[in-house]
Automatic annotation (TrEMBL):
It comes from Neurospora tetrasperma (strain FGSC 2508 / ATCC MYA-4615 / P0657). Keywords: Membrane, Transmembrane, Transmembrane helix. This is Altered inheritance of mitochondria protein 19. The chain crosses the membrane at residues 16-36, 56-79. The lineage of its organism: Eukaryota, Fungi, Dikarya, Ascomycota, Pezizomycotina.
Amino acid sequence: MATEETKASIVDRVRAWGSSSLPGMGLATLITALHWRPFQAMPMLLTPLLMFSSYLSVAGFKIDSAGMTAAWSGIYFLLAARRRPAALKNKFSARGAVRATAMGLSAANVIAGTYTYVTGDRKAEEQERKEMDKWGMYSDSE
């Protein structure tokens, strides 16, 4: 049986994954590795959006970043799931391993990002942004 600490630990890990800037940037890197050569425009349109969601997370908008990462990761997952490798040997190549990693990461992003977005506390996030005040947005410039 799972204890309360284990349940809390899993929830904390999912929330930490969803509010981190790394999953979106990691998925953008994998998408670029897969779809740069030969260039495929549709998947490559998602990379700047995922990078922007990582920037939002670093800027302090972690809940909105989680939602954006979940949405674009889900779209990539659906796009990637449509494509089937031509032969069985293509599934077990280096490219196939990167594709499987990208699809797994996008699925994890959807789950963690959706959870973080749905259960996020915007008032606490705003208070945290005001306390950190990275770019002097909330300080009195007098």
